[in-house]
Amino acid sequence: MGDAFIRHIELLGYEKRFFPSQHYVYMFLVKWNDLSEKVVYRRFTEIYEFHKALKEMFPIESGDINIESRIIPHLPAPKWFDGQRSTENRQGTLAEYCYTLVNLPHKISRCLHVVNFFKVRHDDMNPVTDSQIKKPEVFLLLKDSKKNPTDITGPIVLQTYRAIADYEKSSTSEMSLKAGDMVDVVEKSENGWWFCQLKNKRGWVPAAYLEPMDGPDESEEQEPNYAGEAYTVWKSYTAVEEDELTLKEGDTIEVIHKLLDGWWVIRKDETTGYYPAMYLQKAGEVNTSVKNEQRNRSAPPRRSTIRNVKSIHKRGRKQISQETYRRNSKKYIQNQRNMRGNAQNKANVIIEKNEPEDNKPKAQPAVPPRPSKDLILNRCTESTRRKIL
């Protein structure tokens, strides 16, 4: 196997810490060539020292010899006092810096200096905190923050969820759970994998194994969209459960209900069923690097397949049957109306065809002309002749 290198670095936000004294650290999600994903924490002063050393290693690419040859991105020096405002304002610059850094020529982006700086350290896995003072405050960077660097959340307290059953991780980027564990959710992905932290552990966890503290989580899910939203299958899947669908890459379907566990209800022709959301993309969109990475990942487990569930809520989650999905489908309703309309039209045609025979008026007998007086006198009986005399 080749040397390790970084495929992508994403700035998640920053933390405001209070031990041993108040300071700020940036949170980076680092994705490696072995498909592992790690969260690391770095102060800005560390990042700037890393940047200066990188420029010294590559004087041509840093523009020291010829400014027109510079490809290493710029990074402003730290201020004498870095407060929260400067920490916030730097996020857009840092996000762009990391994106450019990873896309530099391999001799720079894959050099040991870059690889070692973003490797997981002991304090990344075991951050120094003191709950007696104050819990760190987390500020997450929004998805569209590149357009507006000051558009951030916070301060926030991460949502706490409870594990409803034991979960054993299947890759190094995931995190194992025991029933009853309380985790803080850092990122919720619609593919059913959530990035969580538990004390000094961090990793991806199936959303199906988590429940909020105040009740079942169907209130967080969108309502069904029975009109349907056009999507394309970009990875084939063979159904395992009876209510799942088997589809091939390139199939066009309609999504009618997006569920938190990453298993969406879709419609293919007149059939509905569950399908992994991570294998779908909106119609007309192209494959992104993130989706290409997901080809090698398995779909998260479904809630219905979890055994030994230990929920703290008496009321179970609201479930909708596939028959309900099908009957409420706009396409199903329209087809039913079309069928009823066709049946009515057919009946009308039959009635129209039968109407000339059934409703045709019966023929009346012809009335013969009245005989003349001479004819009656010559041919009729005596009694009849008397009536005209």
Distance between the termini: 136 Å
Helix content: 25-40%
Which CATH architecture of one domain would you pick? Answer: 2-Layer Sandwich
Task: State the shape.
Answer: elongated
Strand order of the largest sheet: 8-7-6-5-9
| Major β-sheet profile | 5 strands, antiparallel
Structural class: alpha+beta
Poorly predicted tracts of residues: 145-156
CA gyration radius, whole angstroms: 38 Å
Pfam families: NCF1_PBR_AIR, p47_phox_C, PX, SH3_1
Subcellular location: Cytoplasm
GO cellular component, one term: NADPH oxidase complex
Protein name: NCF1 factor
What layout of secondary structure does this protein have?
Elements: E1 6-17, E2 23-32, E3 37-42, H1 44-57, H2 84-89, H3 91-102, H4 106-109, H5 112-117, H6 122-125, E4 137-140, E5 159-163, E6 182-188, E7 193-198, E8 201-206, E9 210-212, E10 229-233, E11 252-257, E12 263-268, E13 271-276, E14 280-282, H7 289-294, H8 322-328, H9 330-358, H10 373-379, H11 382-388
Antiparallel strand pairs: 1-2, 1-4, 2-3, 5-6, 5-9, 6-7, 7-8, 10-11, 10-14, 11-12, 12-13
Descriptive account of the structure:
By secondary structure, this protein is of the alpha+beta class. Among the domains are: 134 residues, PX Domain (2-Layer Sandwich), CATH 3.30.1520.10; 78 residues, SH3 type barrels, CATH 2.30.30.40. It is 26% helix and 22% strand. The strands form 3 sheets. Strands 8-7-6-5-9 form a 5-stranded antiparallel β-sheet, with no helix packed on it. A 5-stranded antiparallel β-sheet has the order 13-12-11-10-14, covered by helices on one side. The protein has a 4-stranded antiparallel β-sheet with strand order 3-2-1-4. Strand 1 and strand 2 form a beta hairpin. The longest helix has 29 residues. The chain is elongated, with a radius of gyration of 38 Å. The protein starts with 5 loop residues before the first strand and ends with a helix. About 3% of the residues have low confidence.
